[in-house]
Q: What sequence folds into this?
């Protein structure tokens, strides 16, 4: 059931709810206002209702005023049916300088980057995500993540095109086997919107990793022949850019491998193209339950009504949702921003899972923060909010060392048989911990 179906059914209950006999005896004292699907009951007009009274439905907005204004300005002739169609959104991505100049007041640096090109990563933004960008402010967090700047062309010491050494751990094209029991399957290299800090900018958008059956069969065969692999993460590019039929085929082939226990999908679609989460897609996912999903959310401004509906559909289908957030300078490197994000994610039934230190990819210096900034953010969350809202802060070790968790030091020392621990308020407590 979609959110809108659900809203309508609740309104219908209001209309059809028969008064109970106890209720009937009091109807002469007051009469219920007539509720129609489009009207609302003003709280002041409500009588003191008996327990059986069903409150009117709370109608959630379907979009933001910003998106509505953007559509009116740049796509006035586009019908809702098209705007809400993920294929239309994909076909109409904003990619040219001319389109950018029409929709944004470009800074000279943004303009220069778009004119020069030469970045490893192509440019592309869905109309929906473009509608979330600030037209004037080049420093708006979401805008910084998708509109190129010339900083992308500079390589600073310690940066590399493949900092995680994925290519060196690839037994077949598009399959990365770094940990003994799990693999990363790159389904394709296409994304509907290209993030300027992408770890895989060396491959993403280049048309080299195609979802061809021949390539994917080689990957499936490797997994089949390697019984230690129990976990596959399907990523890309964005695997949800594939058709339902293709996803059905990939999931079916993976599920036919007996020793494979755990299948995850990594995607940014609920943030950049939430229209992709259609009932048809959900039907495919339900066939292969249990599936888990890692969603890439960055900033509270991505938690729109559209994203909320996409996550609700996935969560209602029984798919556990976790978010992976890259820590980015000037985007989400403040405790209050990150706290707002993790709270909104929980409300969308997405568990904040990881905060990643930005990988040292070529041209990423303008995005990278110090590690102390990440620790400060974790310290500002742990103890200050719900435990479920606190992600694990990790560095993906350059060269292929895997994820290394980091957290503030809460052990301040030892006094005899007592361990001295610092709590979130900075107070020191003793825990009896005799030395062996
Ligand atoms: S969605 Fe993921 S793979 Fe695609 S550009 Fe963004 S970070 Fe890279």
A:
């Amino acid at each position: 059931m979609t959110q809108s179906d659900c809203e309508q059914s609740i309104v219908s209950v209001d209309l059809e709810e028969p008064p109970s006999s106890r209720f009937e005896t009091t109807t002469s004292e007051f009469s219920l206002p007539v509720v129609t699907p489009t009207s609302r009951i003003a709280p002041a007009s409500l009588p003191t209702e008996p327990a059986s009274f069903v409150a009117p439905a709370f109608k959630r907005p379907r979009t933001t005023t910003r998106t509505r204004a953007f559509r009116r300005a740049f796509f006035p002739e586009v019908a809702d049916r098209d705007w809400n169609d993920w294929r239309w959104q994909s076909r109409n991505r904003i990619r040219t300088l001319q389109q950018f100049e029409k929709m944004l007041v470009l800074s000279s640096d943004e303009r220069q980057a778009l004119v020069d090109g030469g970045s490893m990563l192509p440019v592309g933004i869905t109309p929906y995500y473009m509608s979330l960008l600030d037209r004037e402010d080049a420093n708006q967090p979401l805008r910084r993540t998708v509109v190129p700047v010339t900083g992308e062309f500079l390589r600073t010491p310690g940066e590399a095109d493949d900092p995680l050494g994925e290519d060196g751990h690839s037994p077949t094209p598009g399959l990365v086997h770094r940990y003994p029991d799990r693999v990363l399957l790159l389904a394709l290299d296409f994304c509907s919107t290209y993030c300027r800090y992408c770890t895989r900018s060396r491959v993403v958008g280049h048309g080299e990793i195609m979802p061809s059956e021949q390539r994917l069969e080689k990957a499936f065969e490797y997994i089949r022949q390697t019984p230690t692999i129990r976990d596959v993460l399907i990523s890309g590019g964005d695997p949800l850019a594939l058709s339902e039929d293709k996803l059905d085929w990939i999931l079916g082939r993976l599920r036919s491998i007996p020793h494979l226990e755990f299948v995850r999908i990594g995607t940014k679609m609920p943030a950049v193209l939430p229209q992709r989460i259609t009932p048809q897609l959900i039907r495919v996912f339900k066939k292969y339950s249990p599936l888990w999903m890692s969603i890439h959310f960055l900033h509270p401004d991505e938690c729109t009504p559209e994203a909320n509906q996409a996550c609700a559909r996935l969560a209602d289908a029984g798919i556990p949702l976790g978010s992976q957030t890259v820590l980015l300078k000037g985007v989400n490197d403040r405790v209050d921003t990150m706290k707002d994000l993790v709270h909104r994610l929980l409300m969308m039934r997405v568990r904040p899972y990881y905060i990643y230190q930005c990988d040292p990819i070529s041209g990423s210096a303008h995005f990278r923060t110090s590690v102390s900034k990440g620790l400060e953010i974790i310290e500002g969350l742990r103890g200050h909010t719900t435990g479920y809202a606190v992600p694990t802060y990790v560095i993906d070790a350059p060269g292929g060392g895997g994820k290394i968790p980091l957290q503030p030091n809460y052990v301040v020392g030892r006094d005899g048989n007592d361990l001295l621990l610092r709590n979130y308020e900075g107070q020191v407590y003793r825990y009896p911990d005799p030395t062996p």
